[in-house]
Design brief:
Helix content: 55-70%
Radius of gyration: 28 Å
CATH class of the largest domain: Mainly Alpha
Largest sheet: 6 strands, mixed
Strand content: 5-15%
């Protein structure tokens, strides 16, 4: 278990923690208590508030703030970073990591939809036409939000913290003003009140727990954004600002429910009518910030998944020259927008959408705890086992809403997970096929091979032998460059690899003798090097820089003119492939054809790029 190197914090990082980390959980009061009160009934308002407050204490404060944040991967958090730390080449870890990431992507579509819609629905308090126009107003906001994603979050991020600070301040003030009118609601601090409510309503227990879980759905963001903010600002913001504000807000809503059992929207019901419009505007701003944080998190997650080779390559744009990991993924942005709009119009209201919300995050929390269990020492495993039990209980409660909309979440997450798992299985078959082809020198259709001046980097997955890409080059050109570098790019199990540790030079194994015979030359080295460039899963490889680093190590290439050769491969099943392998390769080949070309991910210049197509046969070995 590593420690975060820099635990210092200042006001700027504290505001960043508020805006980025707590935007999602900070908008839960818009709909969470309403759903819980509807499930249990107005008379159980104190018990509902008790369950929500103690869920915030146990799940967020104890589990995430005090325990989970201590398990970082060189300062980075999140389920993919945790999976890499646990051992990303182990099949159970791969499955848990991909499934957890898939659930978070599904949450990335649900959070903007339910958050913005629930804020806009506040207009129903003062405008009857809002019932008809709420979904279209929400759609317009979502389209505008996703349309500006390509600009990055630097400028918008400066406003996130202050606005969120105001939001939490208003939550606390409004809740306190309602609570003091009905001080009996303070009984909610007694956990027995919540347990008694579950006992009184056993027929609604699972539905109620599913609603209670909505209060902690942003908890996973604390861990995912650890690398952006740091541990201590997250802890301080929660203990001194977020937890008190949310506690007062839920107490205030419970107090209002006791005074006015017929209130339909307890959040806006606490607000004086004259302040409804300003509150709707502030709530909308808060939900946009929460949505922005989730969207940015999905982009970062997609970047890490592609880097770990757990997802097909996608076109990725860096939106900041100094912001670590700030990326824009166009295809992910479009998919999230389409899904969010479909969810808004498919469900129509936020209370219906709440049935689909929460299941994805509950599943991710279970997987996070399970991965932590593999890393923890024996004494800590006892506590994690208790949290795992609580997480599973929340999953079961969320599954109770499966046929009311939860199937949407399961469907989206399952689709993303299947793509990731098939891609991983296909990559393994693909790599074995290339290694098998590299073990032998393919027969050449030319009799004369000419040595030409200059150098070339051949990007290959194979660590030994003659890569098929080099044979394809020789077949196509009847030439061999004076200097050949067989380059493999590897992704480490940590987020960042320093430049001094990036390049490793290795033996060329059997390639030396094979190429020697092709060149018809004598000598100990026909100008062939094998190199491995290692990057962290939060770094994007840049082969232009790799070329300069290779030259600095003494390899005779000109980094400004060296050709970079990549393969455009078609993967087919060979005769020995099993039915399962044929199925996987059929889907994988489609994903591979539609994946972004390597030049985008590896930042290659088109004038020095050579893209060669060839076939790779894969199957049972």
């Amino acid at each position: 278990m590593a420690k975060v190197a820099d635990t210092s914090w200042d006001n700027r990082r504290l505001l960043t923690a508020l805006g980025v980390v707590y935007g999602d959980i900070g908008t839960s009061p818009l709909y969470a208590f309403r759903e819980g009160a509807h499930a249990a009934g107005p008379a159980e308002a104190v018990g509902v508030a008790s369950l929500m407050i103690w869920s915030l204490i146990l799940v967020v404060l104890v589990k995430y703030v005090l325990v989970v944040l201590r398990f970082d991967n060189n300062g980075e958090g999140g389920i993919l970073a945790l999976a890499a730390l646990t051992g990303r080449r182990k099949l159970p870890v791969i499955i848990m990591g991909i499934c957890g990431a898939a659930m978070l992507v599904a949450d990335g579509a649900l959070t903007p939809a339910i958050s913005v819609l629930s804020a806009v629905e506040g207009l129903k308090q003062v405008w009857s036409g809002a019932y008809q126009w709420a979904t279209w107003i929400t759609t317009a906001i979502l389209v505008g939000l996703f349309a500006v994603q390509f600009r990055g979050t630097d400028k918008m991020g400066a406003w996130f913290g202050p606005v969120t600070l105001v939001w939490f301040g208003v939550l606390g003030i409004v809740g306190f003003a309602s609570m003091v009118q009905t001080p009996d609601v303070l009984r909610a601090f007694n956990p027995i009140e919540g347990l008694t409510t579950l006992q009184h309503r056993p027929d609604k227990a699972l539905v109620l727990l599913g609603a209670v879980f909505l209060t902690v759905t942003g908890g996973e963001a604390l861990y995912a954004d650890l690398g952006h903010v740091g541990r201590r600002p997250i802890q301080v913001a929660w203990i001194w600002i977020v937890l008190p504000a949310l506690t007062l807000q839920y107490l205030g809503q419970a107090a209002l429910m006791l005074r006015e059992p017929d209130v339909t929207n307890p959040f806006y019901g606490m607000v004086p009518e004259a302040l409804i419009i300003p509150m709707v505007l502030l709530a909308t701003a808060a939900t946009i910030i929460a949505s922005q944080a989730v969207i940015t998190g999905v982009f970062s997650l997609a970047f890490q998944a592609v880097a770990l080779n757990w997802w097909p390559r996608m076109r990725i744009q860096h939106t900041s020259s100094h912001g670590r990991g700030q990326v824009y993924v166009p295809i992910a942005n479009m998919v999230l927008l389409v899904l969010a709009v479909l969810l808004v119009h498919g469900f129509g209201t936020s209370d219906k959408m709440a049935s689909a919300y929460g299941l994805a995050v509950a599943g991710t929390m279970v997987l996070t705890t399970a991965l932590l269990f593999r890393l923890a020492k024996s004494w800590l495993r006892v506590g994690l086992a208790l949290f795992l039990t609580l997480d599973i209980l929340f999953v079961i409660a969320s599954l109770g809403k499966f046929f009311e909309g939860g199937w949407v979440t399961v469907g989206m997450a399952s689709l993303f997970a299947i793509i990731g798992l098939v891609w991983v299985a296909g990559v393994r078959l693909h790599r074995r096929g290339i290694e098998a082809d590299s073990a032998k020198l393919c027969p050449l259709g030319v009799k004369v091979v000419t040595r030409v001046p200059g150098g070339a980097l051949f990007l290959t997955r194979a660590r030994t032998g003659v890569p098929p890409l080099l044979n394809q080059w020789i077949e196509a050109t009847s030439t061999i460059p004076q200097t050949i570098v067989l380059l493999s790019v590897e992704i480490a199990d940590k987020p960042f690899v320093p430049a001094r540790d990036r390049i490793a030079l290795g033996d060329v194994d059997g390639a030396d003798a094979a190429l020697q015979s092709l060149l018809l030359e004598e000598g100990d080295n026909p100008g062939v090097w094998r190199a491995i460039a290692t990057y962290g899963f939060r770094q994007q490889p840049d082969l232009r820089i790799v070329a300069k680093e290779l030259a600095a190590l003494g390899i005779p290439i000109d980094p400004d003119t060296v050709k970079i050769v990549v393969g455009h491969e078609t993967v087919v099943a060979n005769a020995a492939a099993s039915p399962w392998q044929r199925f996987v390769l059929a889907i994988y080949s489609v994903l591979l054809r539609n994946a972004a070309r390597p030049q985008n991910f590896f930042r290659l210049d088109s004038d020095r790029l050579v893209d060669l197509g060839f076939r790779v046969s894969a199957g049972r070995s």
